[in-house]
Description:
By secondary structure, this protein is α+β, with helices and mostly antiparallel strands. The chain has 3 helices and 4 strands. It has helices at about 25-30, 40-55, 85-100, and strands at about 15-25, 60-65, 70-75, 110-115. Mean pLDDT is about 80; it is low at about 1-10.
Amino acid sequence: MKIRSGFVSNSSSSSFCVWGAWIPTSRLAPNMDTESEEEDWEIHDKLQDICGELVAGTDLIYAVPGEEPDTALIGLPYSKLNDDETGRQFKERAQKFFDEKIGKIKLSFIETEVYE
């Protein structure tokens, strides 16, 4: 994965501002062999599918970097902060999802661009 700053042309990127975590592929898909002879794009597509199923029906979003699909970003975007919700409640809502679906992970504020 490359994180770039400044002007970049001819690239596909998405910007994220979330309360979440970068999660290793080994944690999301313990049986996936990222060292296999599969092409990176095949691993990327499988990881996209896994993340999509994981966050389905929630307010969470995900991103899988295209160049090195060994990690995925999952988080609750700040745009989903409810009007009657405190920052603490927002963070607890995100943490509850991680605890139930992925396990205990320390979450943090993440602001980044992911290039696909």
